[in-house]
Amino acid sequence: xxxxxxxxxxxxxxxxxxxxxxxxxxxxxxxxxxxxxxxxxxxxxxxxxxxxxxxxxxxxxxxxxxxxxxxxxxxxxxxxxxxxxxxxxxxxxxxx
Length: 96
Fold this sequence. Notes:
Blueprint: H1 2-53, H2 61-95
Helix pairs in contact: 1-2
């Protein structure tokens, strides 16, 4: 009977380890995609900033609002990245 419980325990541990590895892979992929998205947002913000500072568009309220909105989006994305990195660092510390 104990051999049966041992076998079930081993199988469950293998399944849990596999599942954790899959979750970590998804998490790392998500983090990489978020980094790319953040860079794209930053480039977009910079582009709007350049257009807004052109003499032709300087002072345009619509572009100024778009620039403020872009800066807010970049800030939110960076906050989210900080949270993810902090959780990753805490996890790494727990492993050590």
